[in-house]
Amino acid sequence: MSAIHHREPVVLERADWPLWLGEAGHGAAVLMRACAEGVLARPFRVGAAVNSNRASGAELVEPLAV
Fold first, then answer.
1. Would you state the torsion angle of the CA atoms of residues 36, 31, 6, 2, taken in this order, to the nearest 10 degrees?
2. What is the pLDDT of residue 37?
3. Which residues are CB-neighbours of 40 under 8 A, at least 6 positions away?
4. pLDDT (mean) for 20-26
5. What is the mean pLDDT of residues 12-41?
6. Separation between Cα atoms, residue 13 and residue 10, nearest integer Å
């Protein structure tokens, strides 16, 4: 991920959602760790529309032609 951005996203398992959302008490900081190798697919660029909360649809995640 460092080639894309200096911060890595937190990838949560479904079972960890309550802790992350504060529904299971405190201590979500333990979930902020690198995800397992191979969890994130190969990266590709997408259009700027993904930055809008009004945008929706499968076309948002279609790779841009480069």
1. -10
2. 79
3. 1, 9, 11
4. 90
5. 88
6. 10
Closest by CA position to 44, among listed 65, 25, 23, 24: 65
Quick one: residue 43, left, alpha or beta (phi over 0 = left, psi -120 to 50 = alpha)? beta
* pLDDT at position 15 over 90: yes
- For 63, phi then psi, to 5°, come to -60, 145
Domain range annotation of the chain: 14-61
Q: Specify the pLDDT at position 21.
A: 93
Q: How far apart are CA 9 and CA 3, in angstroms?
A: 13
SS (HEC) of 5-21? CCCCCCCCCHHHHHHHC
